[in-house]
Design goal:
homotrimer, 475 residues, six-stranded parallel sheet, three-stranded parallel sheet, 19 helices, Uronate_isomerase (chains A, B, C), EC 5.3.1.12 (chains A, B, C), glucuronate isomerase activity (chains A, B, C)
């Protein structure tokens, strides 16, 4: 077998008329810096700048795209190093975990995980053989050796990857201490994102404790609805002060209907009492309250200028037994039908034509691209259509997104490419793939004489770099 | 920069095997006459045959595809010449409006507006430079000069555009006077379409006034449910007498469930009383009543042979403040999930197998093509599947429509191409684009040996010309 | 006109870079045996091995894909040989029926019926002219002559078609006598499939009678809920003993929520009493009961190892008048919105991570591929994503399925190709077409350097042969 390499034209259209145009467009944007405003890399990686542990902990264990596929083919989570919440009982030998991943390489055919991982292994780690049970140890050793090199520490990789700016996701009660250190060392390069989800869902078991964390962090008592709002507002201001540009919201529904203040206040109090006496609030009441709080978040965004990222429509922890044993984010999160036209209406009626507001909406229900999100983003100046998210951040899904949304929303109403990952080393692969897919789409428009080549090159640069900068710019 | 021209192969597939086949199919149909049975060009344009006013009033101000995109990028409607309902306060200099449009040309990349407008500017007005802030005045002058030529008056353009027949959309209470004049001057060429929407939605503020207009036009008192039905029936007969071939219905839902007569009658009376004393009927009651009235319209179609065009699934005036200030049709209309399988069932059970009935169903929720509309049109002889509508009247969306619907419905159960526009000069561009996209789709079937070339050419002529004629032929 | 032939590259991608790769992949799998685990060919065809009657009865009358298209274009079912339930009054001359089909050949352009039928006529029957009113008799005679040949009897065709194994669909109360004969003559080649649908829907008029059939077949009284469950369990065991590998379930909804035993039991009793005294159970109660019974079927599958095939989401007999006159399966079955994420949750929570359970889920609502089914199949080991079903078993729909589902579920979580037809002679055409479409999809991945050629060939063989064998293997 010949050496495993990356083809320079990978992910570009095959047809011989379109490919050279796509290559020309791609080459014009391939080296633009990376703007990575939404992700889940732990801020401590950059703050402490310690070497990454081992190949399995870096590439396999925390990546639920990857572990879920192996589970679907019969692996047990503990065999992949994913431990139960309350104890040991999982594989601790990273080499063994990595072998299981390599032995399952076949199952990733046709998935973006395969594509990204191939890019990472070849481009970052210099691997030259295809993963398999036979090659696992050789690949493991090569990655481990590379990780020992000081030029592969997190901050060095920011440079190597060409990342101009990266956002982390931080709980509302975060002290932002690490970000303070980073602001001193790498000014403007690693920014916090305000994520208040658990605080906006009062039926969750963790709510009461999280409220207390919020009170501690803000110095404002959260035992009244007014105090709760004030504490949230205080934390948002702290994020702004720490360089934050955005908030992030992951709700089951896209509903943003506000409640009258007294109703919201009494739901808050009912939840607070229920949290101690066990009565709680109903699911329907929680849904109404969290929709109301999305509206409040939008209203606060108009005040403080934080861009509101909205990621609704995922039924988390579809198998509650897995969540109880292994915790959240283990691959059992399933998209559901998501309605935006009515759901976003209250926020858009109130703030959709305001230059002080910016919402970026993401979806994993691709039906809404042409039916709802492109028409909404194509008229409301405050709304930008986010890049294909999560399961849709994949070559064919990205192409479908362009084809479904562009004809109604154009390019200027989009966020440009936004990755969303906890797999740090996949970031360059993800951006590179997006640039290739966009180059292919634009090349088809050129080949079909629907766009001129200079326009296509200009648009490719917008999608790769300028639109994300613009979408997340302070209001 | 070289002169701006239209490429002869534009919108045909890029791949070198499929393109020459597509070109051959397209060339066989490109000069067929245009049948434009559904549109919103004002009948007075043809009746009075006055010259079009100026480039901005012709091409920019009334085209909500175009103004909505500029609004989404920060323009204010008044800056684009769109005035508040009750007064002045908007840009009145057409040259200034046209400059704003040209300066925003970039934002239309990838949209059908860009494609159609390029066709219009080059083909109709002989423009040779790309629109931009710099070229705006030059283009404006050239269009203005062209419009002054008597061969560019509306009736002359019917000939220039190759329009064999065009439908207008007229309120049920229209006197049809202009159509009488046109029937004398241009027999069978400009036909009225019966549009009763406001009369079928009793919760609208305008309903009482519209009922009175209906009474005046029909000479039948509309203060009872029986009178209301009789008046509608009288107006339908008047439209038939004036050459009308079709009705048109734009409802939020596709529900067609009939009510018992006494229930319908009492809802009518409740709405009528409520309209004067302010009590009104509920939203749910209005929905039930308007669904009932769709069933009545279908029943009347069986009697009088008018083809029933159905355009459901758009949430109109998503931002009510914009509607209150600027009126309807300003770009704030958003598609919503639309259910046809249950919705159309009452009408199809009753009339779906009748040779006396014809419904053409359109959608802006493209999910229903393969799931519902193609299966329904593929068995009920009375149902035809309409062409991709509104946001979906675009190259990639049209291709998706063919791919999603043809395998189940075939071609014979489709309406062929139907445009839907108030932008008169875009009609030839829209038909030409549809012919190109269909040629591309058919060429792929030929290239994949799924259809013979002679069949493809025959089908292309059906889609462009014969099927629309057939779909709208008197029952 | 030149002779009508099948192009060797039909249904492969047109572009000159991808086609030769597709051809290479296709050629590697074209001769693999056919595994046809889900279908509706009558078991008596194989048990009795009588010659097929005539061309119309073989190819036209029982094929609702075909008759529905002719009905949509104005034919009456009786003209096509489809008789009313209770009597004569339909065309009995097969030649006349065949003429009507050939005269309507144009209407099938672009549909899979056209593609399959062309394959059958040319490849199986040696037809060399395109069907039309003029050629109908010539084609009829040629087919009739072929059918008279003993090598065209059903069992001989199993060999000719390369069918290694074929499943039939049998009511739960089937004696399985024919299968006993076949097990002796053709061991392991024709297998029964347990289909209990009518027994799980207590509001159907036939329910009481079917319960009695179940009691007779099982020898267990079905007048209590416990007896009913025991009788179902007994029949499942009989199917297992007869070589059955799977069950099959066609429900309107994908809901699988179990009820408490006492609630299920009392609904059963209410239905049983209602069935005699006319009171019955409500539609909502029936829905709850049939969802509960799906859960019971899954639980029994864990016990007995039968693979659970699930085909929800079709509104049967959309026009009840047609069903009353002509019976079910006459082309008036329409897909509806189908929700799987919540619907399957109870069964997946209970058994989704069990190695003893296997469900294969099919859909005619293609929206759920990327949103729900691929994410579910991509994590739960017990769930496999079925091949595109019914209206979606068509070239472009199959391609959309691959593009929508593969990036999230990979190939290993799919069933591979599964046909679903009562048209025996279409089986080789359907498998051949699926192999071609998959070769085209895989070739694109190769041409885009997203997959290596050896991987593509290996995957094509999985999809065509190994995955179906594996998906239906005994647990």
């Amino acid at each position: 077998m010949t050496a495993w390499t990356l083809h320079p034209d990978r992910a570009l259209p095959a047809d011989p008329v379109t490919r050279p145009i796509a290559r020309e467009i791609y080459e014009a944007v391939q080296d633009l810096p990376i703007v990575s405003m939404h992700g889940h890399v732990d801020v401590t990686a950059f703050a402490d700048d310690e070497p990454f542990p081992d190949p399995a902990q870096l590439l396999v264990v925390p990546d639920h795209y990857l572990t879920r596929m192996l589970v679907s083919q019969g692996a047990q989570l503990p065999e992949l190093g994913v431990g139960p919440v309350d104890g040991p009982g999982f594989e601790s030998d990273p080499r063994e975990i990595f072998r299981r991943f390599c032995a399952g390489w076949k199952h990733f055919r046709g998935t973006p995980t395969r594509y990204w991982m191939e890019h990472e292994l070849v481009e970052i780690f210099g691997v030259t053989v295809r993963p398999s049970a036979e090659t696992a140890d050789q690949i493991y050793d090569q990655i481990a050796e590379t990780l020992a090199d000081p030029t592969f520490r997190p901050r060095a990789l920011l440079d190597r990857f060409g990342i101009e700016i990266i956002g982390t996701t931080d709980p509302a009660w975060s002290t932002l201490d690490e970000h303070a250190r980073l602001a001193a060392d790498l000014p403007g390069r690693v920014l916090p994102t305000f994520r208040p989800d658990p605080l906006l869902h009062p039926a969750r078991a963790t709510w009461q404790g999280d409220l207390e964390r919020l009170a501690t962090a803000s110095g404002i008592a959260t035992d009244t609805y007014a105090g709760y709002l004030a504490a949230l507002r205080e934390r948002r201001a702290a994020f702004v002060a720490a360089g934050g540009l955005a908030t992030d919201h992951g709700h089951l529904s896209a509903d943003t209907t506000p409640l009258p203040d007294d109703v919201a206040s009494s739901l808050f109090e009912k939840a607070l009492r229920g949290s101690s006496d066990g009565s709680g609030i109903s699911t329907a009441e929680e849904s109404a309250f969290s929709a109301h709080m999305l509206f409040q978040m939008a209203a606060m965004s108009v005040e403080d200028g934080l861009v509101m990222q909205f990621h609704p429509g995922v039924l988390r922890d579809h198998d509650p037994a897995v969540a109880a044993t292994f915790g959240p984010d283990k691959g059992y999160d399933i998209p559901v039908v998501t309605e935006f036209a009515h759901g976003l209406r209250p926020v858009l009626e109130a703030f959709g034509n305001s230059a002080s507001f910016r919402m970026i909406a993401f979806t994993v229900d691709e039906d809404v691209y042409s039916r709802e999100l492109a028409p909404l983003a194509g008229v409301y100046p405050a709304l930008r259509l986010g890049a294909p998210w999560w399961f849709l951040d994949a070559p064919d899904a990205m192409r479908r997104f362009r084809e479904a949304a562009t004809e109604t929303a154009g390019f200027s109403n989009m966020s440009g490419f936004v990755d969303d990952t906890r797999a740090f080393c996949s970031i360059p692969a993800r951006h590179d793939l997006a640039r290739r897919v966009d180059a292919g789409y634009l090349a088809r428009l050129v080949a079909e004489h629907r766009l001129d080549l200079d326009e296509a090159v200009d648009t490719a640069a917008d999608l790769a770099y300028h639109l994300p900068k613009l979408a997340y710019a302070a209001r």
